[in-house]
Amino acid sequence: MAKIEDVAERAGVSVTTVSRVLNNRGYISQRTRDRVEQAMKELRYQPNEMARSLFRRKSNTIGLIIPSVAHPFFGELAYHLEEYADRRGYKLLLCNSNRDVVKERKYIDMLKKNQVDAIVMGSSVVDIEHYLHLDSPIVSFDRTLADNIPIVTSDNRMGGTLAARLLIEKGCRRPAYVFRGIGGPHHQALMASERVLGFDEALREAGIGSLHLELEAVEGDSLRSEEDLVRFLLEHPEVDGVFASSDVIAAEVIQASHRLQKRIPHELKLVGYDDIHIASFFTPRLSTIRQPIREMCECTVDLIARQLEGEEVAGVHSFPVELIERETT
């Protein structure tokens, strides 16, 4: 296998000159550059990318921290982020935090030590201060970290409003909002917490009260959530509509309703949030609020790239949502 010294000898230049050509640093005449590139081609020389990254202090890697890639929404998020990162010449390093404070902190420290170029934060249960001392650019997905850290989100409040209006239009007079917290005071850092604000406001305007049910933040334990939902619906038989804060929770509502032989949409109307790929495969097919995840991921990668170029991009970058009505309403 050819080495950089072989390229230098074939091109009749120094090793330093070859290195400058590889890393595009310093002035190199076009004639010299052509000779070096021709020598590399003839020798089939493959540069050491790790060494180049260390030389440039750039890894071309973006770290992504999410609660769990097994969750359908975060699985789609990771897929689209990787797609757009790859188009910009970046690779994605995936970290599952499982909403565990210790694990999330370890991942942040690991990403810092491995000198990733940037971090996309899709899971935030540690103290905000932990992010403020990082040298890498950060983009937060649907979570408030700090004023100088850009956020990509959807219009959560409007999503709640659209869900309430649809349930009202379909005749619901005792709708409920079902969500899953993340534990502790950090739930308020989620932009998704605004969904209930739009939901409750629209109901108040119609003179209708609402109930709230918070499910435990236990990853992968859908059976416990189903039990909680069954108990809730038994305790509140008057509930005739549900706005679930995610499509996954909406699927759990469908299962709980099936156990109670409560027919959807005849006895209980249901609206989800996200419009994940499998939402249209539920039985019945799920009415939901669509957030444009593909466009949001493209924006996230663009914000990373602009920060790496030295641009200031702080602020909230919010995307409009859309009501998708299917069979559950």
UniProtKB/TrEMBL annotation:
Entry keyword annotation includes DNA-binding: yes
Keyword Cell cycle: no
Domain HTH lacI-type: 2-56
Keywords of the record: DNA-binding, Repressor, Transcription, Transcription regulation
SMART domains: HTH_LACI
SUPFAM superfamilies, per the entry: lambda repressor-like DNA-binding domains, Periplasmic binding protein-like I
The organism's place on the tree of life at top rank: Bacteria
GO molecular function, one term: DNA binding
PANTHER family: LACI-RELATED TRANSCRIPTIONAL REPRESSOR, RIBOSE OPERON REPRESSOR
Name recorded for this polypeptide: LacI family DNA-binding transcriptional regulator
